[in-house]
Structures
1.
Amino acid sequence: MTATVTLPDGTAVPALGQGTWHMGEDAAARAAEVYALQAGIDHGLTLIDTAEMYGSGGAERVTGQAIAGRRDEVFLVSKVFPHNADLKRMRAACQASLQRLGTDCIDLYLLHWPGGVPLADTLAGFERLRDDGLIRRWGVSNFDVGGMRDWFDLPGGSACATDQVLYHLGSRGIEYDLLPWCRDQALPVMAYCPLGQGRGPLQDARLQRLAAEADMSPAQLMLAWVMRNKDVIAIPKAGTLDHVADNAGAAGLQLAPETLAALETCFPPPTRKQALDIV
Ligand SMILES: NC(=O)c1ccc[n+]([C@@H]2O[C@H](COP(=O)([O-])OP(=O)(O)OC[C@H]3O[C@@H](n4cnc5c(N)ncnc54)[C@H](OP(=O)(O)O)[C@@H]3O)[C@@H](O)[C@H]2O)c1
């Protein structure tokens, strides 16, 4: 069964979803990408993360095709470019995303990364879209703890639904300060690149051995680790049915204390502040 994470407004969303970066870039791959996302939905991976940036709108089109006729089954996350994140341009950007996605409302709309637009203008833009029913809630991405504090200092800023940041076994910097800060606000983190983009730990012989001992695949071990505390959402991207099924198998997996302890040794947590990791 798919575990859930509860957003600040009380909405429960799947702890394990699907990413879409690099989808919609190649017409020849489109049918397979749509099929992979649909298979993921069938497996319960019903949170889908996309962005106007991915494939210059192509990933939103692929997502729209995948969810056609089953929009109600899906929790849809998309992101606005920082340069579009002001009162005027955000509406046009959101409407274009909605059209590509084939829906009239985005469940969670994120500022993709901090840019030049004053945060207060972005927040005002989000609120207006929410008032008008184009989005249900909003949040941010690639914000470190200082940016989060600035955001939460704004009137209404604490209505933020998530901070989407890079997090996996090989990149644990957020555990030093950002993750504890978010926990203090009861703010779930959404982990992008939870498989380290298929590199790093996933290829590490120590992780592969621990996964075999735990009777999991390496990807399942990485995903179960990201989701271990029930307040982090993982959004792996998978382009093949095998990968989709493998990842879906991580939903609800519990890690034994000895596995967790071995992972702490092989992939240690940060001991001091690190710059927020990004891709
Ligand atoms: N907010 C941001 O700035 C930001 C930045 C980056 C990503 N994201 C979001 O987060 C999502 C995930 O990040 P990501 O796509 O960069 O990296 P990722 O999910 O960590 O890794 C994706 C890679 O892992 C492979 N893979 C998937 N399942 C696997 C499995 N079970 N076994 C082995 N390999 C597997 C995929 O191959 P196949 O494709 O061949 O299956 C792909 O090459 C993105 O798609 C995007 O939606 C957000």
Note: The chain has a mean pLDDT of 97.
2.
Amino acid sequence: MTAEHSLRPLPEGTDTEIAVVGGGLSGTLAATLLGRSGYRVTLIDRHHVFPREFRVEKIAGDQIDKLRRIGLLDSLSTAAAAFDEIVNVRKGRVLDRTRARHYGIFYDDLVAAMRAELPKAVRFVAGRVSAVEAGPERQRVSIIGQPDVT
Ligand SMILES: Cc1cc2nc3c(=O)[nH]c(=O)nc-3n(C[C@H](O)[C@H](O)[C@H](O)COP(=O)(O)OP(=O)(O)OC[C@H]3O[C@@H](n4cnc5c(N)ncnc54)[C@H](O)[C@@H]3O)c2cc1C
């Protein structure tokens, strides 16, 4: 489908104060915090469900503190495997050990766990953003094809 023939504005009723394009971890967390702050937010991503990708996600250190601060650590820890030691071994020799709390999780599971915590005020739209037009009063986000709004 070419963009020329299928550029459409978001459907009726999808006016929003803030559109977040990209619902990976960053966009999902941004939408969550903005939604909690009372903004009408629309989160737009190409994928309804984030596809499995090779990203070896290890959440540790200040990432844990930040998720705790925003109240999302429980959701992470439920979906992830917690471990407290990493041993780096090469040719049978221990290179180093790190002792600290870590969470191991597939990235798509992480995104799914965080998306599950999106506030009700955040509308999720599955679709590929193809254009953003700025205007004096209104901005318009166009997506390719028929968007799937939830
Ligand atoms: C192999 C590997 C291992 C890694 N290991 C770790 C680790 O252990 N710990 C760690 O903290 N980080 C790790 N990272 C980095 C981490 O995965 C990234 O920093 C993080 O995923 C970035 O998140 P993001 O939300 O910015 O981007 P993404 O998760 O890539 O999200 C971008 C989103 O935008 C959407 N999108 C793009 N274009 C459009 C469009 N036109 N319209 C609509 N939607 C669109 C995509 O569908 C996607 O969902 C690793 C990365 C890789 C590749």
Note: The pocket of flavin-adenine dinucleotide is lined by residues 21-27, 44-47, 50, 54-58, 107, 128-129 (CB under 6 Å).
3.
Amino acid sequence: MFIDSHCHLDFEAFDGQRDALMLRCLALDVMGFLVPATTYEAWSTLAVLAQQYPSWRVAYGLHPYFLKEALYRQVERLGEQCEREQVVAVGEIGLDNWPGAVDMAVQMAFFSRQLKVASALKLPVILHARKSYDLVFKCLREADFKEGGVVHAFNGSLEQAKRFRGLGFVMGIGGTITYPRAQKAQRVLASLDTNAFILETDSPDMPLHGFQGKHNTPLSIPSIAHHVARIKGMTVEQVAAQTYDNLLSTFPKWHEGLL
Ligand SMILES: [Zn+2]
């Protein structure tokens, strides 16, 4: 059984296709989905969709790249939202050092406030960190954040991975490792402990090698697992079982509220 630990199935790209996609996922043994929110406006849509798909788990948060319209009072509502809806994490939150993103000081303020919400609720976080690992470490340290979580789309060094591990985080491993040019990411993965990572697609983004320009879906998870198995010298079944264990220890509320 596989889980996609990061997919934006609430995005419009999936409108009209979700039922069929869920059935196709089932046929490939992709049985669970963690869908993190991105903007405040998207929270209500996600809450409605999560009711319809029992295999989804959700997280709410304000994504750093989409903070342009965001207001601090939305962070105040984050706690209520997480308590009202059954969540497994707060996210996706973090820092995005990419052209077009809002000022880093503003991002850090939002990130720190959202870390406080997660701490108060004892929830792990889904970290979005692009070209910003040092600043993310700084914010985690200043917030004295202890709940851990996942570093979504991890693409750092082994040393950075170890530092995140020390703070209770696992690394999110996705389609990047399927590219022949991603030798550094593959080397880091080869050296990671088997309990240090989980699988994700970031659908509809981050298509696998050979599928550039296409919409990504959780159907890519078995293929990612296949690459991980080759890199780690494990069987695909071992990768599936190990990453499921890793997911459950990262998100202890995964099975809460299940039928
Ligand atoms: Zn995402």
Note: The pocket of zinc ion is lined by residues 6, 8, 36, 92, 152, 202 (CB under 6 Å).
